[in-house]
Amino acid sequence: MDYQQPQQWVEIDTAAIVQNLREVKTLLKAGVRLIAVVKANAYGHGALGTASILESQGVDFFAVSYLEEALKLRSRGIKSEIMILSPVTEEEQVMQGAQQNITLTLASAYDAQLIDRVSKRYELSLKVHLKIETGLGRFGLEGSEALEICHSLSENPLIKMDGIYTHMVNASSTDSCQQQFSLFQATIEKLQACGYHFTWQHCANSGVLALYPHMQMGAVRIGTLLSGHYPAGVSGGLKLMDPFKFKCRIIAIKKCRKGSTLGYYGTYRLKRDAQIVVIPVGFINGLALEVGNPPSGWLDLAKIILKTILSFLGLNRFTRSVVIQGKNYPIRGKVFMQMALVEIPDDIQLSRQDQVEVPLRKTLVGDGIPRFYRYQEGYISEEDLDPTKAELIVGGRIYA
Ligand SMILES: *Cc1c(COP(=O)(O)O)cnc(C)c1O
Known about the structure:
By secondary structure, the chain is α/β, with parallel strands linked by helices. It has two domains: 14-228, Alanine racemase (TIM Barrel), CATH 3.20.20.10; 251-352, Lyase, Ornithine Decarboxylase, Chain A, domain 1 (Beta Barrel). Helix content is 30%, strand content 24%. The strands form three sheets. Strands 11-14-17-16-15-18-10-1-19-20 form a ten-stranded mixed sheet. It has an eight-stranded parallel beta barrel with strand order 2-3-4-5-6-7-8-9, surrounded by six helices. A two-stranded antiparallel ribbon has the order 12-13. It is globular, with a radius of gyration of 24 Å. The chain binds pyridoxal-5'-phosphate. Pyridoxal-5'-phosphate is lined by residues 37, 39, 85, 167, 205-207, 221-224, 231.
């Protein structure tokens, strides 16, 4: 590593991102456009770094959830088309979107009026994609609403209705996907019959692309596959690589006797003499956090209960662990806000310089933690990354 190391950092394997892109492309039919979803800091991989690398490899369309994310990519030099996947709510946002050439989502009559009004008042041209509601229950236009909006916006030459899309509820359910797909197609046909045509029609996320080739339409919106894995409940033959490693340094080492208890409430009692290592990672970084959504069914509920019981019994496979010097060691006791304890056998030689690799949920690792991108000769930080020269990193060289 060429950099003064911070206490915690993330290493991103640039070659893995490139490989995942290549694998995803093998699924695409000729002419299908890839919209790379880099929301939530590119699922933890660093939005600017990931977008730069993908752009250097020919990706020319990105999607994020919110305007702020899009503006950040633009201001740091991403030139490709960027669309946002949620509607904007303020005049100011419409103006910024238009000025920075961000493609907006139009998901309600309110959005249509707002965009229409702002574009006329300030003479701003805008590109929009219509979002159609087909079952997710988040936001989107019903078929008849879409038609009315097309009628009213067609009188405003500043607004280009460039795309139309929907989002699937559950890729693993063929029936529900097919139903949504049919409804989406019927809506498009109805609009076409009235003379409204859209350059980009899209409905496929990672799971849908992996399972239903006929749903690719003109474009696909892919995030999870590019970040190196299949979505939950979906599998396939792509050779995907996880580019993400969270690392930190040991901040303290001490010897503890058999029988001593560790952490708040003394929930863990050492079964033998050991070294206890303190690492600067806690639930603030997503360690030991689970997303607390309701279980998706009885089976899911049973799995959650079973996992909790097994982890309470201290069964190894269900104990969280970290990697030091290439070996796994268990986290003991309750995880603290910003620290955790690791048990290491007495006879292992440790140094403060040892790196600790901690498996974390990537999206929960905050964007304040620096990302470093690996290339052949070393690492470059996301801050130093120049999108116009990212191909040099992919090629294994640093900037000439
Ligand atoms: C997050 C998101 C995607 C990407 O989904 P993946 O399953 O991660 O590929 C696509 N479309 C919309 C609207 C999304 O919110």
